[in-house]
Each structure stands twice: as C-alpha cells, then as structure tokens.
Amino acid sequence: MNSFYIKTNRVFTPIRKYGWIFTLLVAIGGLWYPKLGLLVLPVMLTLTILSFFKGRYWCGNFCPHGSLFDSLLGPVSRNKKIPKFFKSKVFGTMFLAFFMFNMIRKILKVSALYGTMLFWDKLGFIFVASYLMVTVVGGILSLLITQRTWCNFCPMGMMQMLSYKLGKLIRANKRTDQKITVASKDMCHTCGKCSRVCPMQLTPYLEFTDENQFNSEKCLRCSTCVVNCPAGILSLNTEKKARAVIEETNPEGYENRQKIKAKIIEVLDLNDEVKQYTFQLINPKKVDYKAGQFILVKIQEEPKMFRAYSISSYHASGTELSITVKKDPKGYGTDIMFNRFKVEDVIELEGPMGTELVIDKLAEKVVFVAGGIGITPFLPMVREVLDDENKKVTLIYGVNKENEFLYHDELKELDLQSDRLAFKQVVAFDDNWKGRKGFVTDILKEMNLDGHKVYLCGPKPMIQPTVKQLVKQGVKKDDIRYESA
Ligand SMILES: Cc1cc2nc3c(=O)[nH]c(=O)nc-3n(C[C@H](O)[C@H](O)[C@H](O)COP(=O)(O)OP(=O)(O)OC[C@H]3O[C@@H](n4cnc5c(N)ncnc54)[C@H](O)[C@@H]3O)c2cc1C
Ligand code: SF4
Ligand code: SF4
C-alpha cells in the first residue's frame, strides 16, 4: 500500500527555510555561551501575544523548531501517522503543566543568584536546556513519525492555544484571525489532499463550518493545504474576507452535483498502466451530464475520500458512464482502484461536475490539446463538437512514447469520418515513432488561432508552457480553458 501522507511543498519562506539556524545557535551554541538562552524570552513573549490575535500562526510561519522539523528533518522523516496519544488534550495539558512546573521551579531556584554575575548565565541555561530538549525529542519524533509530531503537545503550542482561546472569548481577534477558508463546499473534490499534506495531519475538508472555515485551534496557518488543493478553492482568510470570497465564487457547473450509487460492469485494461472502468448507475438511474465534466469516485470510507476522473464516455441513455484511470506509481487512490475495484462492485460516485472543459455553445472553431491521460475528457467532447455542424475542431494529442496513446483507433476512425475534425498526434521521446516528433506547442506554433477557443487537459508541466505559447500567439486568456489531470 502506497503512503497515505504526502511530503510536498511546505511553502518555504526564507524564515521557514532557515529559521533552524536560530534553534541550533541557542540549543548547541548555548552550551558554551548560556546567555544565548535569553533570546528565547522575546520569542516566548512574541508567540504569546501573536497567538492572542492569530492562533498558532507563529508555529506555521516563524517557529525555529518548526523550521528545523520541516526544512531539515522533513525530507528524511518516515512520514507516518501521528499516534492518537500525542494528539490528545489530556496528554498536551499534562505535559504543559509538567513543563511549566519545572521551568518555574528552576527559575525560582536561580533567582536566589539575582545580582551576581552567575544569574544571567544560569537563567539563560534554563532556556538553552529546554531548547535542546525540544530539539532532541522533537527531532527524534520528527524522524521516526512525522515532522510535526512534537507540535501536537508542544508546551509553547499549548500556551498559544490558551492565549488564542482568551482572544476568542473576549472577541478581540475577529478581525485578525485568519483561518483556512473554502470558497465553495460544492466545488471540493473530497480528495483529502489538504489532509494528506497537512503537517499536523488535520482534516480540514471534513470539518468546514457553515461559514466555510476550518476552526481547528491546532491549525498552524502554514497554507500547505492552500497551495496543494487541486481544486484551488482554499485560502487563508479572516471571517470578513471569507464572506467576500464565498460571494465572489461562482459554483456554476457544480450545482447539480449529486450522490450516485453505481455498479462496475466492465474493467478494461487499455495498457499496463491504464484501465477503463464502466459504471451502471443504480440510484439515481440516470444523470444529466455535459461533455468535459468529471465525476468523483469514492475510494474509501474512513476517512471519506474520493478521486476526480473526467468522464471518458457516456452512454446516450444516461445510465452508464466510463472513466479512464492511469496508475500513479506513488498514488494512494489508484493503488486501491487497481487492486480492489472489480466487476459487480457497487461504488459511490458524486457529480457530474466541472465547467472548465464544457464547450462554449457559441464557439465555431475549437482546439483541444491533450497531454497523456489528459485525452479522457476530449473523447466525449470531440463527439459533441462533431454533432454540431457549425463547429470545427483540431485535436492535438501529445505523449512521451508511442505506446501511451489511448483510444487511437477510435479517434482515427472519427478523423476519417469527418472533415470537421483534424487529429494531430505528436510524440516527445520515442525514436521508433514514425510520425511527428516534439511537443504539442510545436504544432500550435504552426496554426493560425484567430477566433479559436482552446481547451487543454494534461499534466501541469504541459499546461503552463502551452498557455504561455497560446497567449504569445494572440489567443485571449478568456478563450483558454484548462484542467490539469
Ligand atoms: C478534474 C480532474 C480530472 C481528472 N481526470 C483524470 C482522468 O481522467 N484520469 C486519470 O487517470 N486521472 C485523472 N485525474 C487525476 C486523479 O484525480 C488522481 O489525482 C490520480 O488518479 C492520482 O490519484 P492517486 O490517489 O493514485 O494519487 P495520489 O496519492 O493523490 O498522488 C498524486 C501525486 O502526489 C504525489 N505523492 C503521493 N504520495 C506521495 C508521497 N508519499 N511522497 C511524495 N509524493 C507523493 C505524487 O507526485 C503523486 O504522483 C483528474 C484530476 C482532476 C482534478
Ligand atoms: S490545515 Fe492547512 S494551514 Fe492548517 S496546519 Fe494543516 S496544512 Fe497548515
Ligand atoms: S484538497 Fe481536495 S478535499 Fe481538500 S479542499 Fe481541496 S479539493 Fe477539497
């Protein structure tokens, strides 16, 4: 089974990346020069005040230990599930009480030396020792479990949560408190990626409030989930700004999303790494669908999680649909689908949904650009264009190796049948391929794209240069629509 938690872009600002230097300076340097420990006092003061207004923002953005765990130890961490014990409130509170008791006891003992040369060294060493303890214990947990295991019961984190609670109680942080906000719950793919990349292993997507915000006091406001959400619907915002984001979001194309029970009636191996699954809808028996839309497929119940797949073919009766899935070598969901999904299984679907690739009714000249598995939405889209006698379409299909082409015969056949379809294939890295070599952008460069609407689907590394190329050729941004598979 592939790993559930993903180590991915932790959004490294310079402070997050190099903050660990401060940790080592105090924890190691302090062994020789104990006064360095006194630097921890302004840190403690700042984090307590900041958390009153912004929750654990410090932990996700400025904490030197956090930087050590994420930046230095993260890449070699085993990235396992954090045991419930470390996450429990009881353990966190007991650990805070123990830590504070010890700290106060030591400070009282050292205070007897006040006025002597030794006082500042002894006081500093109290903080050096605690910094070193966090570095060693937190570091070990970081390596053995996951990088932010310590942060679940860190006394400074607990102190911030108390200070934040106070801010909330007296309603002093309403304008400053930024929380993870979802622009529209209907647009969420329920893919769980926000949870899988979360350094605290929280589950924002299962806990959005009626105000579309994630209220967890443990949230570090690190924005890792924001940059990794495939639907691009997350942001870090105050309650007021969240309301504005929700109002500005147009959930068109998602309003008909519905839960569907469906039976797998066929599993076809298209090649070693691609399977086509055909579902018969059970309840409801029929759904409305627009070519270019996608559907969510439930891959597991606990925690609830779906994967998005473009509908690659749709039965005219509206009672059957197919998706085409490429196995991701590191993928969690495709691992489950390839190994467990079989004919006769009843699976939960949600959708159909999405607007990006739904063809503009008024467009007469359209270009479809597909990269690899990104061909899937274009199969029904080509048919839809060909059903409208006013429309002409060019389909450019690029892959890395010839054997990656899917539905080749079907598309060739359509190409032969209609002079309103121009089907162009291009292969990037295959010496045995006799046809056009290169990238989809090479073909676009040769085309006059005046008055065309362009629809793209493929991996991110294909989308960005292609959009750039299209804009260079004078295609308006509004006439370019894309989805990254
Ligand atoms: C609108 C839409 C339509 C789509 N249509 C299709 C389609 O028609 N066909 C299709 O095949 N796919 C499609 N996809 C993609 C699909 O939803 C899944 O993302 C894809 O199948 C991979 O799922 P997975 O759970 O196997 O991968 P995941 O486990 O989610 O992994 C995805 C990627 O995350 C990274 N990753 C995962 N685990 C780790 C780890 N432990 N360490 C480091 N990196 C890691 C890897 O880069 C991996 O490639 C579509 C996506 C969207 C948003
Ligand atoms: S929920 Fe998002 S912002 Fe909060 S800790 Fe997790 S990844 Fe960071
Ligand atoms: S990452 Fe997935 S589950 Fe989380 S908000 Fe985005 S679309 Fe929804």
Task: Briefly say what this structure is.
This protein is an alpha/beta fold and 485 residues long. It is built from 17 helices and 13 strands.
Topology, element by element:
Elements (H helix, E strand, L loop, with lengths): L13 H5 L1 H13 L7 H15 L2 H5 L2 H10 L10 H4 L1 H23 L6 H27 L10 H15 L9 E4 L10 H4 L27 H5 L5 E4 L1 H10 L9 E14 L2 E10 L10 E7 L4 E10 L5 E7 L6 H8 L5 E8 L11 E7 L6 H10 L4 E8 L8 H10 L3 E7 L12 H6 L6 E7 L1 H13 L7 E5 L1
Parallel strand pairs: 9-10, 9-12, 10-11, 12-13
Antiparallel strand pairs: 1-2, 3-4, 3-8, 4-7, 5-6, 5-8, 6-7
The protein binds flavin-adenine dinucleotide and iron/sulfur cluster (SF4) (2 copies).
One iron/sulfur cluster binds next to helix 11.
What does this molecule look like?
The protein is elongated, with a radius of gyration of 27 Å. It has helices at residues 14-18, 20-32, 40-54, 57-61, 64-73, 84-87, 89-111, 118-144, 155-169, 193-196, 224-228, 239-248, 333-340, 378-387, 408-417, 440-445, 460-472, and strands at residues 179-182, 234-237, 258-271, 274-283, 294-300, 305-314, 320-326, 346-353, 365-371, 392-399, 421-427, 452-458, 480-484. The chain has four domains: 14-167, no CATH class; 178-248, Alpha-Beta Plaits, CATH 3.30.70; 258-353, Translation factors (Elongation Factor Tu (Ef-tu), domain 3, Beta Barrel); 365-484, Nucleotide-binding domain of ferredoxin-NADP reductase (FNR) module (Rossmann fold, 3-Layer(aba) Sandwich), CATH 3.40.50.80. The chain has a six-stranded antiparallel barrel with strand order 3-4-7-6-5-8. The protein has a five-stranded parallel beta sheet with strand order 11-10-9-12-13, sandwiched between helices. It is α/β, with parallel strands linked by helices. It is built from 17 helices and 13 strands. Helix 7 (89-111) packs across helix 9. The mean pLDDT is 94.
